[in-house]
């Protein structure tokens, strides 16, 4: 259900997303971008802003930026430059950030997102290259800036390549915002240019939110930060919309400011007022030169783009996969396994069912990641076919799956079935004997069934299951029971 | 031994190669000279009126060890570069491990850089022996070295006068016979103008020919490191030792650099020399003008064709420079905030700490330029100031291109005045800025320019001639400079009533 | 203030007129007709100066921190920051 705002009002949202590239080295220097290194060990004169140090552009970062721009349907600008964005802050090693200003590398793109079965297009204003800042730890009561006595700066992250993607204010509800962010994540991951994990900060999102009475001009917008999950994004937008509407209806005005989302309390609060726009005194960085992206090189890059999520989802849906599941398969990085599993002919919907249902669920319970599990598409295909041919019931298949995960993919389903004797008992002869015995032993229940209490058959099925250590083919068991009961 | 300090680098190398003298002896002789005249042993406050005070830091131990090492390798037949074993003074704006780099400022007092500049690395690879770091106008901003936070440097030709700036210490070290070679940096004339007023050779290479990695930045699109020496040939040798592409500097050019020696001695017969209409006459002292006219006559006598050329936008060079340079510097100096290195003045909040640190660490000229620059880049002013100045810059560059269509090189006096007395121009910033009126156009255009001594005024103070060549034609400027140097045969030894003491018998 | 310089009243009194003077001098650039002129930063039209995505050695941490005014927990320490990131 799409969240709506009060009648007569319109919500207008623009999103600013930052993507941390997974290049080996930083944007301007050869320091490692490895996450989690001890503080201030992945640093050099350049990324700590030592006097006399100079930046040199990372070629891979530019290439990744262009590829992402293409994947987002942007125009790639043929000549662009870097500008300095000047402001003072301790985690900014030079007290300016090298970024792009009036001519970003990529402009005017769009992505389509699916919201409740409806396709919505969100246009992109620009995508530009910049650098990340260092990380501050605030020492004080809350660990947040307010009330801290001191801050400690680690420059490991300073200079890591960042791409900033700015959408146009085409978003009018929280669900579209969430779908947009998820889609961006999926595209970025498909390209392999970033891990794009919100929990790790390799993708970050700020929301610009305003409201207006329908028919009126755009309202004053606020910027909300500290959105650490897709869920927070949705909740924060909904909260901010309500807050702004209430404020205006109370006769007050919206202050243009930056707000902080508090996930615990579910509210946004003032971070800093922005009565005057900060003057960053942008000017072209004289330490750097123009970046030229000639048309033929750009086309070459277009040729390297992988299948994009929208196309993958469409392909899955065409093959018969439920759209919601297609979204999950593509969006959770399981597409490769799906593709492997279905190339051999396994049914698309069944495979998707397994992947998004039991496999995902069991991995989660076991606390194992897809990579750690060692599961392959071939494994899944085999499991599916064992069920299809009747060797396994769904229930038994789940047990086999558990064992597969346990074995970290070192054992195939067939091997596990063999080892543990988990084959489904479907042999009529064998089953009939057991069924007849169960019917004979449960006269009262049988009478109840004959008397019209159909549900009671469940208890008898249960007994057959017990006698077969759960391996009786449930359908056959049901059939035989009814046959024997009717006959008797 | 003491006459070793009067020799050129080329002569010293010849002596070392012939075995007559060792690098160690050369280095020791120069260190002794520094001891005699520089007042280095004295703390700032005790400097006398006869101390030149060219050096801020001496790296005597390292220098001796390096010299010994060169001697050893020479003795065992190792191939050595053309300047191996020669001592050099390094402007304190260039990072060098093992000694403080102060940039003439309290902001970096005691700062020991964690890395070497590319220029430093190349000097070492060429086995040029660095004796120490020289005094300069703070953050390279100034034309007299009076803006140094560590006291004045005195002009060896008249100890009551300035050595020029901002590379005053390097110029004085060479002029005062404390080193045959020095490295300075030139942003608007900071090598050429000190060279002129100190009677030595100083050159600003084509922009991008020498790496800026490790040069504490003042104005990124203008800064260039370059050589000081007492002969044109020495300066060329030094430039050749440090120039060349550096992958650590994005503005470092990749084009092939000229061979500075092939035609060095070819003379000027048939060469076309253009006298810049806008850079002469009014505002130039009589002694400067006289030496200029004399140089032109000499060139003519040597077979050069002299004509007038116009650089119509040259008069706008200084105004444009004083928008571009402060703008870039206001951004380049933002990093000095008491967080990662340098001075810190404590305060309860980071913001206050930044502001107090910068207020205490920067002198008045630096503050002026930061404020001008901040203003020139601010929204609402950017177009009229920084952007407009950048356009004027292009017009000046185009003027040079047009001029070089008609002539091979253009010339002007380097500085409108000879060395001036201490304190005579400090009251009025613009009076000080006008020292660079002739040097700034070449800086803005990026073309190579050299100052070569071309005479003395009536009081015996040195005058310099500026020769500017097309981009990448550094060889041409050296050639034209060499011809005049030979023709004049001027002695580089300082003379005059208030000059620095020179070794006996010199 | 944008330049993050705290000046004394005396300094302001001295600097302000000088700044006006310097700016007035520099404003001469406006006398040049340059509407159609491309601004210039570097004398050579260098382009695409880039480096390969290969690691280079980082600085030893001790060396870096040895020059810092204040260090705590292997990090650069600053007094409390008032404004959130600009």
What's the tally of helices of chain A? 16
The average pLDDT score of chain C comes to 90
Helix content of chain C: 25-40%
- Structural class of the helices, strands and pairings of chain C? alpha+beta
Largest sheet of chain C: 2 strands, antiparallel
Largest sheet: number of strands, sense, barrel closure of chain A: 9 strands, mixed
Computed CA radius of gyration of chain A, to the nearest angstrom: 29 Å
Strand portion of chain A, in percent? Answer: 15-25%
Q: Into which percentage range does the β-strand content of chain C fall? A: 5-15%
Order of helices and strands of chain C: HEHEE
Helix content of chain A: 25-40%
Structure explained in plain terms:
The complex is a heterotrimer of chains A (488), B (506) and C (86). Chain A is of the alpha+beta class and 488 residues long. Chain A has helices at 59-71, 174-191, 230-249, 295-303, 309-318, 323-331, 335-343, 348-366, 370-373, 377-388, 394-406, 413-420, 428-441, 443-450, 457-467, 474-487; strands at residues 9-20, 57-58, 75-76, 79-80, 83-86, 96-99, 106-115, 118-131, 135-140, 148-154, 161-167, 203-213, 222-227, 257-262, 267-273, 283-284, 291-292. Chain A has a nine-stranded mixed β-sheet. A three-stranded antiparallel β-sheet of chain A has the order 6-5-16, with no helix packed on it. Chain B is an alpha/beta fold and 506 residues long. Chain B has one domain (2-248, 261-278, 289-310, 398-488): Amidase signature (AS) domain (Amidase signature (AS) enzymes). Chain B has an eleven-stranded mixed β-sheet with strand order 1-3-2-4-6-5-10-11-9-7-8, sandwiched between helices. In chain B, strand 7 (272-276), helix 8 (286-301) and strand 8 (305-309) form a beta-alpha-beta unit. In chain B, helix 2 runs antiparallel to helix 3 and helix 9 (317-332) packs across helix 11. Chain C is of the alpha+beta class and 86 residues long. Chain C is built from two helices and three strands. The longest helix of chain C has 18 residues, at 9-26. Helix content of chain C is 28%, strand content 10%. Chain C has a two-stranded antiparallel ribbon with strand order 2-3. The interface between A and B is large, with 30 and 44 residues.
Write the layout of secondary structure elements.
The complex is a heterotrimer of chains A (488), B (506) and C (86).
Chain A: E1 9-20, E2 57-58, H1 59-71, E3 75-76, E4 79-80, E5 83-86, E6 96-99, E7 106-115, E8 118-131, E9 135-140, E10 148-154, E11 161-167, H2 174-191, E12 203-213, E13 222-227, H3 230-249, E14 257-262, E15 267-273, E16 283-284, E17 291-292, H4 295-303, H5 309-318, H6 323-331, H7 335-343, H8 348-366, H9 370-373, H10 377-388, H11 394-406, H12 413-420, H13 428-441, H14 443-450, H15 457-467, H16 474-487
Parallel strand pairs in A: 13-14
Antiparallel strand pairs in A: 1-11, 1-12, 3-7, 4-17, 5-6, 5-16, 7-8, 8-11, 9-10, 12-13, 14-15
Chain B: H1 9-17, H2 23-37, E1 55-58, H3 60-75, E2 87-91, H4 118-125, E3 129-134, H5 168-175, E4 181-186, H6 192-198, E5 201-204, E6 224-229, H7 232-242, E7 272-276, H8 286-301, E8 305-309, H9 317-332, H10 350-361, H11 364-377, H12 383-406, E9 409-413, H13 429-433, H14 440-445, E10 449-456, E11 462-468, H15 474-488
Parallel strand pairs in B: 2-3, 2-4, 7-8, 7-9
Antiparallel strand pairs in B: 1-3, 4-6, 5-6, 5-10, 9-11, 10-11
Chain C: H1 9-26, E1 50-51, H2 61-66, E2 71-72, E3 75-79
Antiparallel strand pairs in C: 2-3
């Amino acid at each position: 259900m799409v969240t709506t705002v009060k009648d007569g009002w319109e919500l207008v949202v623009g999103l600013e997303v930052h993507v941390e590239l997974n290049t080996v080295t930083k944007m301007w220097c050869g320091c490692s971008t490895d996450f989690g290194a001890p503080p201030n060990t992945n640093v050099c004169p350049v990324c700590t802003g030592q006097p006399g140090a100079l930046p040199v552009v990372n070629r891979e970062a530019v290439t990744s930026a262009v590829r992402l721009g293409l994947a987002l349907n942007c125009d790639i600008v043929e000549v662009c430059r870097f500008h300095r964005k000047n402001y003072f802050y301790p985690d900014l090693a030079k007290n300016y950030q090298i970024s792009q200003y009036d001519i970003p590398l990529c402009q005017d793109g769009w992505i389509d997102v699916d919201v409740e079965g409806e396709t919505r297009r969100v246009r992109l204003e620009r995508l530009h290259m910049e650098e990340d800042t260092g990380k501050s730890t605030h020492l004080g009561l809350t660990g947040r800036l307010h009330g801290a006595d001191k801050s400690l700066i680690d420059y490991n992250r300073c200079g890591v390549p960042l791409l900033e993607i700015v959408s146009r204010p085409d978003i009018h509800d929280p669900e579209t915002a969430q779908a947009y962010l998820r889609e961006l994540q999926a595209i970025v991951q498909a390209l392999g240019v970033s891990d794009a994990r919100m929990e790790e900060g390799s993708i970050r999102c700020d929301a610009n939110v305003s409201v207006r009475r329908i028919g009126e001009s755009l309202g004053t917008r606020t910027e909300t930060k500290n959105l650490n999950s897709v869920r927070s994004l949705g909740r924060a937008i909904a909260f901010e919309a309500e807050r702004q509407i209430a404020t205006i209806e109370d006769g007050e005005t919206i202050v243009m400011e930056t707000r902080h989302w508090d996930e615990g309390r579910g509210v946004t609060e003032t971070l800093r007022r922005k009565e005057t726009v900060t003057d960053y005194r942008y000017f072209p960085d004289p330490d750097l030169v123009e970046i030229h992206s000639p048309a033929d090189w750009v086309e070459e890059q277009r040729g390297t783009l992988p299948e994009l999520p929208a196309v993958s989802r469409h392909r899955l849906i065409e093959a018969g996969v439920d759209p919601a599941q297609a979204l999950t398969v593509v969006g959770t990085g399981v597409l490769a396994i799906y593709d492997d599993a279905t190339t051999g002919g396994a049914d698309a919907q069944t495979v998707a069912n397994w992947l998004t249902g039991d496999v995902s669920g069991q991995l989660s319970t076991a606390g194992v990641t897809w990579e750690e599990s060692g599961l392959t598409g071939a494994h899944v295909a085999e499991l599916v076919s064992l069920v299809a041919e009747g060797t396994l019931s769904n229930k038994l298949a789940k047990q086999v799956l558990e064992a597969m995960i346990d074995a970290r993919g070192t054992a195939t389903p067939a091997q596990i079935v063999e080892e543990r004797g988990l084959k489904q008992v479907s042999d009529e002869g064998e089953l009939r004997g057991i069924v007849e015995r169960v019917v004979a032993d449960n006269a009262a229940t049988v009478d109840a069934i004959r008397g019209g209490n159909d549900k009671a058959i469940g208890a008898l099925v249960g007994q057959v299951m017990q006698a077969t250590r759960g391996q009786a083919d449930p359908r056959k068991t049901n059939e035989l029971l009814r046959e024997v009961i009717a006959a008797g | 031994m003491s006459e070793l300090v009067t020799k050129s680098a080329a002569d010293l190398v010849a002596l070392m190669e012939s075995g007559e003298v060792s690098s160690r002896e050369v280095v020791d002789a120069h260190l002794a000279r520094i001891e005699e005249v520089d007042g280095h042993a004295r703390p700032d406050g005790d400097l006398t009126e006869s101390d030149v005070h060219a050096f801020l830091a001496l790296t005597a131990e390292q220098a001796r060890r390096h010299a010994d090492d060169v001697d050893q390798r020479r003795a065992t037949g190792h191939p050595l570069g053309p300047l191996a074993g020669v001592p050099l003074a390094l402007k304190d704006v260039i990072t060098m491990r093992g000694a403080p780099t102060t940039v003439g400022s309290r902001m970096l007092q005691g700062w020991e850089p964690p890395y070497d500049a590319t220029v430093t690395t190349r000097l070492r690879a060429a086995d040029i022996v660095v004796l120490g770091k020289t005094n300069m106008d703070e953050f390279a901003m100034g034309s007299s070295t009076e803006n140094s936070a560590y006291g004045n440097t005195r002009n060896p030709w008249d100890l009551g006068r300035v050595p020029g700036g901002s590379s005053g210490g390097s110029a004085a070290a060479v002029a005062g016979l404390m080193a045959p070679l020095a490295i300075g940096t030139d942003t608007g004339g900071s090598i050429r103008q000190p060279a002129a007023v100190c009677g030595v050779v100083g050159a600003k290479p084509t922009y991008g020919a020498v790496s800026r990695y490790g040069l504490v930045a003042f104005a990124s699109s203008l800064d260039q490191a370059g050589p000081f020496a007492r002969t044109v040939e020495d300066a060329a040798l030094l430039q050749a030792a440090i120039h060349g592409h550096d992958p650590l500097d994005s503005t470092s050019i990749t084009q092939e650099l000229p061979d500075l020696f092939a035609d060095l001695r070819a003379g000027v017969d048939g060469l076309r020399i253009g006298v810049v209409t806008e850079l002469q006459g009014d505002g130039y002292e009589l002694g400067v003008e006289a030496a200029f006219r004399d140089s032109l006559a000499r060139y003519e006598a040597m077979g050069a064709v002299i004509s007038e050329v116009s650089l119509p936008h040259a008069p706008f060079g200084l105004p444009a420079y004083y928008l571009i340079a402060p703008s870039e510097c206001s951004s380049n100096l933002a990093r000095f905030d008491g967080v990662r290195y340098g001075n810190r003045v404590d305060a309860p909040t980071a913001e206050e700490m930044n502001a107090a640190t910068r207020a205490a660490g920067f002198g008045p000229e630096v503050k002026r330029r930061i404020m001008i620059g901040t203003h020139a880049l601010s929204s609402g002013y950017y177009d009229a100031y920084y952007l407009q100045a950048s356009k004027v810059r292009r017009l000046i560059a185009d003027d040079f291109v047009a001029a070089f269509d008609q002539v091979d090189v253009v010339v002007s006096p380097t500085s409108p005045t000879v060395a001036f007395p201490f304190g005579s121009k400090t009251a009025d910033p613009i009076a000080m800025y006008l020292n660079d009126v002739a040097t700034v156009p070449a800086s803005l255009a990026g073309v190579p320019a050299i100052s070569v001594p071309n005479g003395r005024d009536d009081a015996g103070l040195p005058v310099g001639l500026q020769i500017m060549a097309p981009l990448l034609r550094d060889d041409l400027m050296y050639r034209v400079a060499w011809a005049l140097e030979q023709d004049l045969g001027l002695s580089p030894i300082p003379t005059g009533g208030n000059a620095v003491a020179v070794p006996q018998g010199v | 203030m944008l330049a993050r310089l705290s000046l004394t009243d005396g300094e302001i009194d001295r600097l302000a007129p000088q700044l006006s003077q310097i700016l007035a001098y520099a404003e001469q650039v406006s006398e040049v007709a340059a509407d159609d002129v491309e601004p210039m930063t570097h004398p050579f039209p260098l382009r695409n100066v880039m480096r390969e995505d290969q690691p280079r050695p980082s600085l030893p941490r001790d060396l870096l921190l040895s020059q810092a005014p204040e260090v705590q927990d292997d990090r650069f320490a600053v007094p409390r920051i008032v404004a959130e990131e600009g």
